[in-house]
Amino acid sequence: MGNDLNNAMDSTEGNNQYDEAAKRILGNKEVLSHILANTVDEYKKMEPEDIIPLIESNPYISIVPVEPGLTNAEKTVNGERIIGFNTENSERYEGLIRFDVIFYVLTKDGKNKIIINVEAQRNENTTYPLLNRAIFYDCRVLASQKEREFSKSNYQDIKRTYSIWICMNTGENCMNHIHLVNDNIIGDHHWKGDIDIFNLIMIGVNDSCVPEADESKFHRFLCALFADPEKIPFQEKKDILNQEYNVWTPEIRKEVETMCNLSQTIAERAEIKGFDKGFNKGTIETLVALVKKNRLSITDAAEEANMTEEEFKKYLS
Predict the structure, then answer these.
(1) Where are the beta strands (DSSP E) in 107-225?
(2) pLDDT above 50 for 270
(3) Is the residue at 1 inside a domain?
(4) Which one of 44, 117, 135, 229 has the fewest CB atoms closer than 10 angstroms to its CB?
(5) What angle do helix axes 29-39 and 213-226 make, rounded to 10 degrees?
(6) Is 258 exposed, middle or buried (0-12, 13-18, 19+ CB in 10 A)?
(7) Is residue 135 a part of any domain in this protein?
(8) What is the pLDDT of residues 161-209, one digit of tens each?
């Protein structure tokens, strides 16, 4: 069992490295420009290369805390009070949940900004409804604007927000825009305000095969970036990203190659491979052993096994 435990821990570490590589890909402006061109109405008629200059500075990757009260950081520069995204004291906030990627992008006219949050999920099988988490994240992006984007009662200065979730292994290619709507129940009164400030984009990707470009060009792009190399080999990924989307930069190549290598290593080392194809006794025993030794939480073990916590707890009795 000792080797099994080591293999499982190697797999957990490998999964973490894999996730970090995926986040760095999402934080790349060339990639973000394609995502914005396909998800945000403001940019849907623009070419991705024309969107890149509108993305301000470098996107924050796994730095800004999601937790209430920690998203903003306040400091004084030359006697002036300045509040921005909290990118400091990362050690102090170690272990807290952070936005995968968050950044500002200018509108086409350059007069306003939109705040974009992009999140990646390897599958939809979590112990909670993924949509609920997405709603919470976008609410946090909205609420954190107080004292950063507006002060006192100047609610007219709230920036439009998008929280974009890319979920692999959903079994089908899909995309939903979830936003506020106005239903007139009594009368036709018009309430002043910006109903478009809250937006969720939920993207499901069937990564078992790459769709043809004329079928779904955007999902083809996402598959080439994130699909398991066992399903889509590295060379095919390279050809698609380079020849069809012109995003094969040295940085993206490095991260895609890292993800492919990590995926192969995880598959070779860990017994906890292929839960979507069925379980085996050794697999469950490995996870149970890790939980009992307090080296893996029930939540993480259940997620690794694509189970709910209640389903996994049955194996602990």
Answers:
(1) 113-121, 160-168, 174-179, 198-205
(2) no
(3) no
(4) 44
(5) 140
(6) middle
(7) yes
(8) 999 999 988 889 999 999 999 999 999 999 999 999 999 999 999 888 8
